[in-house]
Each structure stands twice: as structure tokens, then as C-alpha cells.
Amino acid sequence: MEKYTQFVKKEIGDFNPEYAIVIGSGLAPIMDKVKVKKRISYKEIPDFPVSTVEGHRGELVFGTIGNKKVLIFNGRFHFYEGYSMKDVTKTIRLAGELGIHNLIVTNAAGAVNTTLEVGDIMLINDHVNFIYADNPLRGEKGNKRFVNMIGVYSREFIKKFRKIANREGIPVREGVYCAVSGPNYETLAELKLMNRLGIDAVGMSTVPEVIMAAYFGMKVLGISCITDAAFGSNEVSHEEVISVAEKCGKKIAKLVEEFVKEA
Questions:
Q1: d(Cα 83, Cα 79) in Å, to the nearest integer?
Q2: Residue in 259, 221, 234, 188 with CA at minimum distance from that of residue 107
Q3: What are phi and psi of 258, to 5 degrees?
Q4: What is the mean pLDDT of the segment spanning 119-145?
Q5: What does the DSSP assignment read for 115-129?
Q6: Are 108 and 224 in contact (CB under 8 A)?
Q7: Which residues contact 77 (CB under 8 A, 6 or more apart)?
Q8: Which of 15, 46, 208, 209 is 20 to 30 Å from the Cα of 88, by its Cα?
Q9: Distance CA 255, CA 257 (A)
Q10: Residue 234 pLDDT
Q11: Which residue has the higher pLDDT, 238 or 201?
């Protein structure tokens, strides 16, 4: 067991979360749905990275949504921050070592599919990994490292989330998410290639976390907030991404709250 897991276990005692939730850029409204039991700054945790990106607070939050115990990663780590994939996925390894079996991962993403609009919520049904420079499972021992990624996004979770969204009158889309290393945004030629490959949205996170989640046998629900139209004429900025995500995040927060309550 890693040092950071040992530290967190001592801090939380017999509090055993059922769900881990990763909050992406600007999606902090999810925190409004959590009854907080304990907060731990990433800076306090041994051998743990620190979030350096605007829109990522950088803390573990233990609490409840309804009667379900949850662990919230209020801020994630990215490859473009200079971290290794081992560091980027320490959040998920921590969740796995705490015995958590369910993961909800959220992100802000750019639309590659031209039918997607800014502010749309997209459930991830599959992904493409364009971050080839490293892999979070590189160096792991034994056959467990040869993880099967087919069907890693739970159809059961997607179906349940859609049912809740329909009931709440909140439209949701579904599609393929592509992870790139960043921090630069994509060229027009790269976007055209992604579009031809059947990719619907692109971002700079999530896929490494999902690979690690699969390693630990977790069921995964992936949610993207479409914060910009990748083929649009306006220049994309991180500030605009966060602004849109904060508005979109209120809807996602409501749906995640209901999803966890009814689990």
C-alpha cells in the first residue's frame, strides 16, 4: 500500500466510500451536493502531487451524497503539468487501494463532432488515447497490467444516467472522447483527422485515470461538459473553458447527485 494511501486511511478511520468522483475544470458545483465530513489538501498528503491549474482546487473531500459515502477529488493532475502518468493517476490508485469500486469522472472537452454545441453534456461511451508518451501501467508487475479496455465505460451506468436526465428534463449526448497531452490546443488538421476517426470530443485528461480504474476493476461513468466548438472561428482560451464549465457544471451536479442517491 502506498504511503499516501496509508496516510489517508489514518485520517478517515472507518469511513469507507462507495464512489470516487473526479471533478474536472470548472465543474466544482458538484461540491454543492456533498455533505462534507473531512477535507484534506493535496499538499498535506505524502508523495502526492499538487494541482497547478486554474479551476482545480486540489483537495480530497470525504462526505455523503444522500446516504452514499463518497470520495471527491476536487481537482486532478495532468500530464502537461509535468507530472508522470504514475503521478497523474495517483488519485485513482488511492481510490482503488481504499477499496472503492465505482468511479465517476468528469471533464471539460472541446467538440469535434460538429453536432455538439457549447454547453452540451456528453456521456463518454468509449475513448481514443493519443497520449502515447507514457502509460500509467508501465512498470506494473504480472499479468494484471494487461488491462482489457473494451467496454470500460459501464453501459449500466450510462443507461441509468440517461434515465435520470430524461426525468429531470436535461438533454444529454453520448460519444467518443479523445485524450491528448496538451497544453496546446489542436490544429485544424488534427481536428479534421479526429473527426474522420469518429471522435466526438477532445480533452487533456480522463483517459489515464480510466486506464487505472480498469486496472482496479472499477465501474466507470464518464461525463464531458462541452466547453468549446473545436471547429469554431473563435480562439479557445482556458478562461472561457472554465466559464462555460461552471454553468454546465450545475446541471451535471444535479444529475450526479441523483445518480449516486439512486445507486
A1: 5
A2: 221
A3: -65, -40
A4: 94
A5: T--TT-EEEEEEEEE
A6: yes
A7: 49, 51, 83, 87, 88, 90, 91
A8: 15
A9: 5
A10: 56
A11: 201
CA distance 112 to 199: 7
Please report the sign of the dihedral spanned by the C-alpha atoms of residue 32, residue 164, residue 162, residue 192: negative
Contact 171, 165 (CB under 8 A): yes
Residues 50-83: b if buried by 16+ CB within 10 A, e if exposed: ebebebbbbbbbbbbbeebbbbbbbbbbbbbbeb
Q: Which of 161, 176, 91, 88 is nearest to 131 (CA)?
A: 88
Question: Which amino acid is present at 152?
Answer: V
pLDDT digits (tens, 9 = 90+) for 74-94: 999 999 999 999 999 999 999
Q: pTM of the prediction?
A: 0.93
CB-based contacts of 159, cutoff 8 Å, min separation 6: none
Q: 14, 22, 58, 17: which is closest to 35 by C-alpha?
A: 17
CA distance 257 to 31: 10
What pLDDT was estimated at residue 183? 93
The DSSP secondary-structure symbol of 131 reads -
Q: Which class is 3-261 in CATH?
A: alpha beta
* Residue bearing cell 466526438: 200
- pLDDT per position as a tens digit, 39-49: 999 999 999 99
Distance (Å, rounded) from C-alpha 84 to C-alpha 126? 23
CA distance 99 to 111: 34
